[in-house]
């Protein structure tokens, strides 16, 4: 892949795929978005392998549906919506719920800094686990807002495009989600 191809606009790449079934253009889009889509999936799923599987499913769905993409939103918005829906569907599936009860989904974070003391690392890990547990306990619509706004740091306008909700609704859902998260964290902190 040369630098000229990397700088091609998403819209041009999508049109090349739609008109010419250009697999090279699709490969560029996958490389451009794979990390962001994986991160979205990881935040929803809480497990690296599940996130990888959801990201793969997302790209399969993108490929299967790209010819019907109407350019009413940006390709990135459309692909993030597919990722969110893929995670939502997987989380609500009977098989996933059953598997989740069988296996622990908690993973240790690789973000712990080696230059911190063991006590500091342990405290950071404890806080990360508590926050992840609280996010996992949120209803899906609250979890979606926290992940999109506070973790993935999408703008309100981007969230409006991804979810299809009005701006006022997005803002109120984010505020309610933050309150709910705060409440769950307080309960976890006090051992309730």
Question: Your description of this structure?
Answer:
With 192 residues, the chain is mainly alpha-helical. The chain folds into 2 domains: 100 residues, Rna Polymerase Sigma Factor, Chain: A; 85 residues, Winged helix-like DNA-binding domain superfamily/Winged helix DNA-binding domain (Arc Repressor Mutant, subunit A), CATH 1.10.10.10. The protein is globular, with a radius of gyration of 19 Å. It starts with a helix and ends with a helix.
Summarize the structure.
The chain is mostly helical and 192 residues long. Helix content is 76%, strand content 0%.
Which structural class should the secondary elements be placed in?
A: mainly alpha
Query: What portion of residues belong to β-strands?
Result: under 5%
Largest sheet, if any? none
Overall radius of gyration: 19 Å
**How many β-strand stretches?**
0
Looking at this protein, list some descriptive labels.
2 domains; 192 residues; 0% strand; Arc Repressor Mutant, subunit A; 76% helix; mainly alpha; Rna Polymerase Sigma Factor, Chain: A; single chain
Topology overview:
Layout: H1 3-6, H2 10-20, H3 23-45, H4 48-65, H5 75-92, H6 94-102, H7 118-137, H8 140-151, H9 156-163, H10 167-189
Helix pairs in contact: 2-3, 3-4, 3-5, 4-5, 5-9, 7-10, 8-10
